[in-house]
Amino acid sequence: MYEIEKKDLKGAFTFLPIDDVHYGSGALANLEATLAQYGIERALLITGKTLATKTDLVDKVVAASRGRIDKVFHNTTQHVHRASVIDAVEAARSINADGIISFGGGTPNDTGKAVLLALAEDVRNAADFDRYRVKFEYPSKVEVPPVNGDALPMIAISTTLSGGEFTHFAGITDSDRQVKDLYIDKKLAARAVYLDPELTLDTPDWLWLSTGMRSVDHCIEALCSINAHPFTDALASQALQMLNRYLRECKADPTDLVARTNVHLAAWMSVCGLANVNVGLSHGIGHQLGARNDVPHGVTSCVMMPSTMDFNREHVGNRQAWIAEAMGCDVAGLDKETAAALGRSAVQTLITDLELPTRLRDVGVAEDDFPAIARDALEDLVVATNPRPVGSVEEVIEVLHNAW
Fold it and tell me: Which residues, in sequence order, are bridge partners of residue 101?
């Protein structure tokens, strides 16, 4: 049984300004009331091309708004390139939008947050984003520019499991530098979130399951964080148990709405409170695999989690043993190292059972890419808070080689 450490805790805990989370089958029926709550009459709906052109789900969302959605923007791009954000901002300005609705996965959601920032700060072109991106110089010099203007209210409707609708940061890719930058401010958080499993049935299985592994990554890096907290520990460990069960049930029966609701809730739990604990190398490398190699977010977690856990194994106490327990392993009577090894194995087994990629070579990443990925990762502030200190490009390349 995992034994909780005795820690001298002090500080302040940050909650984001999310007022309501609507979940379960039929939750979308509450949308018009939510929009009215915030006085939204001319919303811009931001979504993806597939949802807009190959399903009838956008029509259902528009109908549920009862006339409060004025325009739909679907020309979003994976990893949220600056130019696509500017296009969305112009769409919002064209209708004098008084609210934003993101509908889909991480791409529409981060695009929506980026539009909030751009409207609040009068961003007019791609270069203007440089003023607001987080600037980090390894190991500890960081600048997080605030959003000073007033942000529109945003409603987030999720069709994946990446959990970005519950965070206050966005990743936006600078195509010139081939780097994904972070933008952080509580004003970027959604005011209400919808988790309706009926809206997720058209989500491709590989996307649903791989973004579920992204939530597993949230749990693992939160539990192993250098500033892990009892609040997030409790949520992450319970979420990990739920993800381990319900992702498998979704794999076995993609139409099981109860399983889909439970795994959606687990994704929420995996990031709830994450504003208060630092993540690490798996997320930091994943950001750059997306920007440079166009690897989807969930897939980056599939290929990077096991090697990152191995890299950190001697620097996380007995936390990987706790992961083993949360994922259903029998750790009774085992020493810490053996139990921790079961935790790492359980994560690898889940990825395999879901039939998701497990190696970088399987997702189009070449060994020649490693130096650039490693250099960019060291400019990501979450790498500086990895449990095992990362001091060089060579160490990041070692982790990449182990994942290749």
Answer: 45, 155
pTM to 2 decimal places: 0.96
Mean pLDDT of 206-229: 98
Closest CA to 106 of 85, 75, 79, 127: 79
Q: Is 23 helix (H, G, I), strand (E, B) or coil?
A: strand
SS3 141: strand
Fold of 205-403: Dehydroquinate synthase-like, alpha domain (1.20.1090)
Q: Which 3 state secondary structure label does DSSP give 180?
A: strand
Written as one letter, the residue type at 301 is S
Q: Do 70 and 95 contact (CB within 8 A), yes or no?
A: yes
Contact between 186 and 138 under an 8 Å Cβ cutoff? The reply is: no
Token pair, residue 349, equals: 């087994």
Say which residues have a Cβ less than 8 Å from residue 285's Cβ, sequence separation at least 6.
Answer: 300, 304, 308, 373, 377, 383, 396, 399, 400
- In angstroms, the CA 330 to CA 373 distance is 37
Tens digit of pLDDT for each residue in 229-261?
Answer: 999 999 999 999 999 999 999 999 999 999 999
CATH class of this structure's domain 20-200: alpha beta
The full set of domain ranges for the chain reads 20-200, 205-403
Q: How far is CA 128 from CA 86, 113, 132, 139, in A?
A: 10, 15, 8, 26
